[in-house]
Design a protein that fits this description.
Shape: elongated
Radius of gyration: 24 Å
Strand content: under 5%
Low-confidence stretches: 14-44
Structural class: mainly alpha
Order of helices and strands: HHHHEHHEHEHH
Length: 256
């Protein structure tokens, strides 16, 4: 529909203005993201998290873990791994959706840029990771406002939501494989039709219903396009020349 078309158009503006710059993934475990050392009763602790730890937390979202797979749900350590992962997601969501603390917008941008650096790791290996990442995206959108910084973060989310995906196994394809007597036991080829993107979890977000958001976003996209193309600079130079010409004419007339 109209929103889907708008997302496609606006996403093309993000690449030029935000850049890609993939970062180096880290395997460091966050003290506040796992274990029992986290004090969940203190609602202000999340706002004291350094930017570096937010980047590390985003890295953790993309690390494959076999314990997240459905067939390993009842294996030893699986429940703990899933609990720790959700704790980390909840912490990121609380920071991303914050609108009150002075550093909220800056930390939201840090999370967005960290996500942008993971574009080379677009495929998520488990449903748990897809759901967790979608929760972070929704939290970012909830924290965005209609100011320049908020719109830029929302635009980045639009683009990235069409980047990260999980491949969903097709039941029909598996059934056909079982009935196949040709002797070909190779796994079914991946196609885009069985990719589930983060975007599917964001379509109904309340931010898309705000007309002011779309007005401000359109204005920003147009302004960025004109600036990047050099049109505005040419227009300003033309206006300067026109002003000088008019001023010279006025001075000439006044002398007579």
């Amino acid at each position: 529909g109209g929103i889907a078309s708008a997302l496609a158009v606006l996403s093309s503006h993000v690449d030029g203005s935000m850049g890609q710059g993939p970062g180096s993934p880290t395997m460091r475990r966050l003290e506040w993201g796992v274990g029992d050392s986290v004090n969940n009763d203190d609602g202000d602790n999340e706002q004291d998290i350094p930017h570096e730890e937010l980047e590390d937390a985003v890295d953790e979202l993309f690390i494959p873990n076999d314990l997240f797979l459905p067939e390993n749900e009842h294996k030893e350590g699986s429940a703990k791994a899933r609990e720790d992962f959700q704790k980390m997601v909840d912490k990121l969501c609380k920071v991303a959706s914050d609108t009150k603390s002075p550093a909220a917008k800056s930390k939201r941008s840090t999370i967005c840029y960290a996500l942008n650096s993971k574009r080379s790791e677009a495929e998520l290996k488990s449903q748990i990771q897809l759901v967790g990442l979608s929760q972070v995206f929704r939290a970012i959108l909830s924290g965005c406002d209609n100011e320049i910084g908020g719109i830029a973060n929302a635009k980045m989310c639009m683009m990235l939501s069409q980047t990260f995906y999980r491949v969903e196994k097709e039941k029909e394809g598996n059934d056909n494989k079982q009935n196949d007597t040709s002797g070909d036991n190779s796994p079914p080829k991946e196609t885009r039709s069985n990719r589930v993107y983060v975007k599917t979890q964001l379509i109904g977000h309340p931010l898309w219903e705000e007309e002011e958001f779309w007005d401000q976003t359109l204005n920003q996209c147009v302004a960025e396009s004109l600036t990047n193309s050099g049109v505005m600079q040419s227009f300003e130079r033309s206006n300067d020349r026109r002003s000088i010409t008019l001023l010279n004419k006025k001075n000439t007339k006044s002398e007579w």
